[in-house]
Amino acid sequence: MHIVSALFVENFELRQAPGPSTRLDLTGAMFSMAAPSEVPVTVAPHLVGLIYCPADEAGTGVFEVVYRASPDPDHDGEPMARNVSPFDVEPGKFTYRLVRGELEFTEYQQVFAHCRIGTGPWHSVPFTLLPPV
Hints:
Largest sheet: 5 strands, mixed
Helix content: under 10%
Number of domains: 1
Structural class: mainly beta
Strand content: over 45%
Number of strands: 12
CATH class: Mainly Beta
Distance between the termini: 41 Å
Shape: flat
Number of helices: 0
Order of helices and strands: EEEEEEEEEEEE
CATH architecture: Sandwich
């Protein structure tokens, strides 16, 4: 299995289309946001991971997301947050995982959501907290 895409979004909806076929409506894709108040502050952006399972694979896996201030997923030290979510997907099909990490910021900075399936390679998504407007 592999990650097709992972990004932060404001809203995510599924809908049926003729075929039958499924459509994913992603709105408000973002890589940064203005803080709702001065730091320290906690924000909880939604990360959606789209996962594909080839037809010749079993269809069970674990989606792991580790939030770090470092672009290195194997950086020593405590992560800001971590989520592990088991899933099943029909071989030859797609699935998604929606992760809402509660991130505590003491400064305006960039963090990285490091995502992987099982012990596979990391896929990193940057997110920057900006000062309030």
